[in-house]
Amino acid sequence: MKCFKFDQLTAYVDGILTEKEKGHVEKHLEFCPSCREVVTALQKEDAFLQEAIQSPVLPTGFDDEVLSNLEPYQAKKKRWNWPYQLLTAASIVLAFGLGASFLSDIQKSDTGNSETSVVQKEKDALYSVEDEGVLLEVTDISASPLKIEIFYRLKPEESVLEDFLKKHNVNHLSQVGDDYESLPPNGKIVDLNGQELPQREVSLGSNGWLQNSVVIRPAKMDELPLPDTFRAQIEFNDLFMQDGDWSLEIPIDVTDAKLLTKSNSYNTEFMFDEFYAGPIEWELSTNAHNLQTHAEYREDKKDQLKEIMKARDNEEIAPIIMPELSIVNSAGEELLIDGVNLEYHMGESFTFDYEFANRVKGMDVTENLPRSEALTLRLKGFRLEEPVNTQFELTDGMEKTDKNGWTIESVTVEEDTDNSKLVSITGKTTISNIESFLVEVDSDKEWVTKEVINTTVTNEGTFIIQTNMPNSVNNYQLDITSVTKWFENEKDIILW
Predict the structure, then answer these.
(1) Tens digits of per-residue pLDDT, 188-238?
(2) Are residues 319 and 461 both part of a single domain?
(3) Strands (DSSP E) found in 316-419
């Protein structure tokens, strides 16, 4: 892909290109880190010059005699009014610095006593493969027994990109999303003899700005542990709507990472009237953390939920217990979550596998926290979603009626338009820990569409359900279908 000249990028930053020329530059910038770095530096210079050449504001009450001896101040022309072919001295120095930055990441200051970061050199490709006008380059590899992550970038030829955008009827790649690559790629790990090793999953990371990654998670092997060295095989068959073959075999070495991989078990249990949770299994390595925990309803609650599900004829409203937790470092920053896997056991018990990256927000995607970093599991509580099977027959103006721990206290109406009215249903529940619930509001008229409403509950258990109904409708069916409960239980567990 041919890069733009420096004066062309300067013209782009100055905003004096035609719309067509601007579009060509912006499409190129999506795929060229080098030109993006130049544009970023020019924009910073532009902001500096704008600030530097503004007319000074003299303080109020400045000595009149001094002012009388000064020549009238002539505001300098702003840089964006100059022809872009004429570069300021600062621009010339910047141009030299940008060119030199591709040979060195730092530039000495005028005094020679400090070093100032200029433009980061684009990382060299560790491995690459090209087909159908698309170059795939591997730039970084992060490997441990818990996660193999291979970072790559894509560089399509101009004609491929133009054709791809045209097929999507858009002007820029950002309008397409992730459709430029197949999801997920084919990937596996093999030993040095070519024998495939067990793995849990292969997926795409989501790191932004065309620096993506392939993630391979090895399976735990008690009898035959993961070897120190092996190979990762990745393959894309569809990039930018081009059928091709982008296959790479990459050597992986986890010798050092295996020495730093540890696991621990915490017998902490959380007991509630309706359910219990625990223990906690935790495993950490250089680039990832895995945390597993279990939650299960008590026997009487299981029987109650079974009856509700049966009464609802196995509708897709299933119970779930979900812990709300995070892992934080010594500064209180949360580790990023890579994903959560749930094993659902007949709606009675649940096993959760949390996968955390070993980094916090703001860190580069290829960086990891040092193993000396203190880590704490911070549990906030548990959120439950459960089916309910409670119905009410309501009419305008009716008063108190109750059922299964729910009370409807009043149904009032207020004219909204000539054809519709606002129906307000107020009530209260004695069921504890409820945050919100879902209801379906229907009428005795077949032509009225059923409405699903999510309703919050106050700490006192009160609620208001509001819906619009035709003026001709006076009877309503209210079906409470599910509830969300919150069980707070704040606890910190030192992991490392």
Answers:
(1) 999 999 999 999 889 888 655 456 899 999 998 766 789 999 999 999 998
(2) yes
(3) 320-328, 335-345, 349-360, 376-395, 401-403, 406-415
